[in-house]
Amino acid sequence: MPKILFLLLIALFVSLACGSPDSDESEEWNLQDWELDEDSAAGSDEQDSSPNTADPEPDEPASEPEPEPGPAPVCPDDAIPAPDPDACGAIESPCPGGQEYEFDVQCGCVCTGDSDPEPEPEPEPEPEPGPAPVCPDEAISTEHPEDCNTIFNACPDGQEWTFDEDCGCVCTDISTTEPECPGEEEGYHYVSEEPEECALLGVFVCEENQSFFENQCGCGCVDDEPPPPVECPTEEDGYHYVSDNPEECPLIDFVCEQDQSYFQNECGCGCVDDEPPPPIECPAEEDGYDYVSEDPEECAVIFYSCPEGTEYFDDPDCGCGCYDSNAGSTKTCEPMDAHGDGMCDAFFGWAYYGDGAGQEGCVGISGCECIGEDCDSLYWDVDDCIDDHKSCES
């Protein structure tokens, strides 16, 4: 304690020596400082007199609680996820009118801005009313046409009540237009020109090729539709007319030439050429026919002999000569590869098996099926099989 008081006295002496004696504020400040120093000294003594105790360690700061997650962001339907604003500029699909893409951290690229409102359709102008209908004084207003038949008041002479959509029942002139009646030139033959009288006439008979008619002009008989015109065959068709009057034909006697026939029709009568015979097909040389003469009459008076291996032929239409049955033939003397299989009654044709087999080398093939490479080349007639292999006989 004495040590502290000594130090305070020294500090007071120094402050009085350095400070201004006229400064009240300095004295007051120094006095306050002294009082503070004394209090501090007293506190220091109290600390020194207290037992040495360890200062308590300060408490550890409490950890701050983690913030609770906020609500999930609500993004518009047309939002496009994007990592950065640059991606919004590369989007090809445009925003609605008046909007553009902007980047949002939570939603990506979204369309923002006010869209152009759709223009409201302009109302259609109401049609201008037409002029009011001018109705006659005697018109009776109604919306039902049948009312015109129940009006007791009569119209003036030559008029009758008719319905008009604008005025109702009005009096109009009775139509005096006479119907156009068909005349004689059109085939109509009137028995009466009074329709009322036709109802009293009863039944009357029309002539042949006519029919009864009744209309607003009267009644009578009308000619039937004429038959279509007859197309008569001509000379180019082979028809030679003796008469073109069908009624005259029974009275005429005539004889047709050879290769012609008598005809009679609605065009007349005469002679028609017979159908020409079909063209004659003569055997060809490539089929083995070697003609000595192509004149049938000459063939009857000439004599000739045929080479060995050929035979004589005489065609009444084509001529005569020598026939070689093997000319142009692809047949060989090798036995055919075909035989029947199975115990069936099916017959497939004739096959050449060689000299000494069957009928002059030809054998019938029968069974359930034909087996062999030549089954499609079998002969249906045994004579054809024999003729094609005559040169194969030993």
List key phrases describing it.
flat; single chain; alpha+beta; 394 residues; 3-stranded antiparallel sheet
Question: In words, what does this structure look like?
Answer:
The chain is α+β, with helices and mostly antiparallel strands and 394 residues long. Among the domains are: 79-115, no CATH class; 137-173, no CATH class; 190-223, no CATH class; 235-273, no CATH class; 285-323, no CATH class; 339-392, no CATH class. 15% of the residues lie in helices and 24% in strands. The chain has five helices and 15 strands. Strand 9 and strand 10 form a beta hairpin. The longest helix has 26 residues, at 24-49.
Integer average pLDDT: 79
Helix content: 10-25%
Helix and strand element order: HHEEEEEHEEEEEEHEEEEH
Q: Give the amount of beta strand, in percent.
A: 15-25%
Q: How would a crystallographer describe the biggest sheet?
A: 3 strands, antiparallel
Q: Name the poorly predicted regions.
A: 20-38, 40-55
Entry summary:
The chain is of the alpha+beta class and 394 residues long.
List the helices and strands and how they pair.
Elements (H helix, E strand, L loop, with lengths): L1 H17 L5 H26 L50 E5 L3 E5 L46 E6 L3 E6 L14 E5 L2 H7 L8 E6 L2 E6 L15 E5 L16 E6 L2 E6 L15 E5 L2 H4 L11 E5 L3 E5 L15 E14 L9 E10 L10 H7 L6
Helix pairs in contact: 1-2
